[in-house]
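cron nightly-structures :: item 1 of 1
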Amino acid sequence: MKTIDRISYKKSTLVSFFLTTIMLLMFSVSDAQTAPGLSGKLRRPAVYQAMEKVADWQLNTPLQHELTDWTNGALYKGMVEWAKIAESQKYYDWLYQVGEKTNWQLGQRKYLADDHAVGMMYLEMYRKYHEKKMLQPTEERLDSIMKHPSHASIKNFSYEKGNNCTDRWSWCDALFMGPTVWATMANVTGNKKYLKFMTKEYKATSDYLFDTKEDLYYRDDRYFDQREANGQKIFWGRGNGWVFAGLAIIMTELPENYKERPYFEDIFKKMAIKLATLQDSSGYWHASLLDPQSYPAPETSATAFYVYGMAWGIANGLLDKKTYLPVVKKGWEALIKAVHPDGKLGWVQPIGADPKHVTSDMTEVYGVGGFLLAGSEIYKMLQ
């Protein structure tokens, strides 16, 4: 199950000062750990080499979470996009083996978006192999949800027993885990009923959690009135990364003439404008978007998702190349610096519901998934 931070989000100024100092010292030596031979240049051979290095490290590293866990769902999506580019069949073979082990089933919790994320990979594998077993379990789950939709409120978010708010997309991460699967199912099957449900639920969540003054998403409604040490609102780096990357995936699947497409494009563009202003001089984004001084270390999962989304936006004509290509370039160079000599991606913030401190040795599968998404989209963009 997803690990949840149930402790109220508080920190003292003194503790924050010492942690900031430590993180800055650690960050100063991170470049020395960069994998030799890798280049951050936006050239297809260099991008390919970096993705291969990171993907191979992951294939040789045992997964620590349940195979149907949301963490792995993000990894699989990045891995399948890399597999489309890679010259070796081994990545598709690895993904196929995962599907066989899970019997192509989603997670056990019927409504929880976290348990749906693996469906993105299943549907991509169905596109390649056309084996009904890859599609049917996810199709049955979504059909069941539409037939018996949850009527839970998305307000008053809580993990307390008896509160079923997570039966709907009541937290921003869910906008990556859930609607991406629904949009892909609509495209794969040609059935627009999945788009109708997805759009309705997406709007309910987005209209509630999107801050129109900052053009960023709150993690959930517990953070509406909380503030960072510097007095700014709390907008989590990876949390907004989930949304931004999710929008790119969703719009990839939407028909060009879909009447609600402008709704998703508008949010995407607004977020891109804001996010471009929050990239630091080294090319990274941080765990807290509006209080990077309290979280000065790089955060590569958020950075990867933003680089992916902006590269997708450039390639698909939604973002101005002259404005955003430098942002993508700087972000990709920063991500390359976070790759260890063995291919491990460092500076990945650990699991949690809000900004947390991160070190160069920390990694997680969703960070790798984001890295492969970013690299794959850059690779296509350069074509």
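cron nightly-structures :: done
The longest strand covers residues 210-211.
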